[in-house]
TrEMBL record:
Pfam families in the record: Esterase
PANTHER family: ENTEROCHELIN ESTERASE-RELATED, IRON(III) ENTEROBACTIN ESTERASE
Keyword Membrane found: no
UniProt cross-references to Gene3D superfamilies, sorted A to Z: alpha/beta hydrolase
Full protein name: Esterase
UniProt keyword annotations, A-Z: Plasmid
Amino acid sequence: MNSANNGPYGDAIVEEVIPALEKQFRLVSAPWARHVEGASTGGWQTLALQLQHPDFFGGAWVLQPDPIDFRRWQLVDIYADTNAFVVQTGPFTTTERPFRRTTEGQVVWTNRQLSRFEDVLGSRGRSGYQIEAWEAVYGPTDADGYPKPLWDKRTGTIDRSVAAYMRDHGFDLRDYAQRNWATLGPQLAGKLHFFAGDMDDFYLNLAVYRFEEFLKSTTNPRSDATFTYGRPTKGHSWHAWTWADFVRQVGAVMKRHAPAGHPALEGFP
């Protein structure tokens, strides 16, 4: 997607990169033949491209995506929570919010630890690490010309204005899809395919569950998106199929939507 900090990458992919590839190589220049796939950050980008350009791509294969519902930015609700570091567990107690876990549930890093690590690596959002990478893509530019942080890296206090910017500019993909479903829904029929492990190392399955809840609630049209979950204890690197089988699955979907007798399908099983 286009970003205030990173530039018009979404436009560049759709208007420059893909047309150049289709001109240079033996590719089919048609939506039914353009499928996008990605995992983790690439999974978020995959869904964003399909939602932003629903008629350009013929399918999105979204594998363990970075948060696609910001009410579950991992374990933080950036709209309702006030602090990214701790959660109130009782009238007098708080617990640190994890950032990463093992597939057995052992906490590896907390939000506080990673935030301070990134703060040491570089000031003004220049660590090049995960939290600040998200802020650079989704967030606004601060007065100093650098990405404006979603939360204070030393205290964890969430800046609600940044959260609102991310939502209002379409980076919360569930919110974007929900607000635009009347027009998006018909354009996404047969195109959305989600995959996640039930013990994703970064808790990314939680936002996928929220996206599924939304899509299951849709009407006029009702979503036909597919969701495949790895169980039990499948982590961030889990895949439902081998890559060879994955290519066959994508190819089968392309074949169903291709014009009858298209020469690109000759010899296709």
